[in-house]
Write a structure and sequence with these properties.
It contains seven helices and five strands. By secondary structure, it is mostly helical. The strands form two sheets. A three-stranded mixed sheet has the order 1-3-2. 25% of the residues are buried.
């Protein structure tokens, strides 16, 4: 009877402790489509920078998956939301920015080699597809996706000008490369 209680206690307490660790453990950076659990399970090497404050890790800008592979969508997202991160040390911020931009420059070079074969559907485009457009970088790409999620889909291509940061010049640069 006593052994049965110990076994039952072990199988109930262990999962609860593990769950508490995962929920209350390290603080992580911003993400687009990754769950909080996925982020918590990532190794520190998946992040652009890791800082420590009051004995707790603060991991910034996750952009590699659990296998160490670069996630291009996530890279664009963290660059597009980079200014939302809070940093303990500005040197770490600068180091992370440089690290992420090295990845981004390689991505842009790869995209430049590929031609747009068809107009980009602004109601369905991924961040990677959006940054392939002229004058659209990570910040603007994230704003377009956030607009679609929070306001509405675009009824006309002209409505993309409702996105903060897209004025007449940007619209004229992309108008022939987009569709709805």
């Amino acid at each position: 009877m006593r052994q049965a209680r110990k076994t039952l206690f072990f199988w109930i307490l262990l999962p609860l402790c593990l769950f508490a660790f995962l929920l209350g453990g390290e603080k992580s950076g911003l993400c687009q489509e990754w769950s909080e659990m996925t982020i918590r399970l990532l190794p520190d090497s998946s992040f652009a920078a890791v800082e420590v404050k009051d004995g707790k890790k603060i991991r910034h800008c996750p952009h590699h998956d659990v296998n160490g592979k670069l996630d291009e969508e996530q890279l664009i997202y963290v660059l597009g939301t980079f200014d939302n991160e809070r940093w303990i040390d500005q040197k770490n911020r600068e180091m992370a920015w440089k690290h992420l931009n090295r990845h981004y420059e390689k991505l842009v070079t790869k995209l430049e080699k590929q031609e747009l074969r068809a107009p980009v559907n602004i109601n369905q485009a991924t961040l990677t597809e959006l940054i392939a457009l002229p004058q659209v970088g990570p910040v603007l790409a994230v704003k377009i996706v956030e607009y679609r999620k929070t306001v509405s889909s675009f009824e006309t291509i002209e409505q993309i000008q409702n996105v903060e940061g897209i004025g007449a010049a940007t619209f004229n640069a992309i108008r022939f490369y987009i569709s709805k």
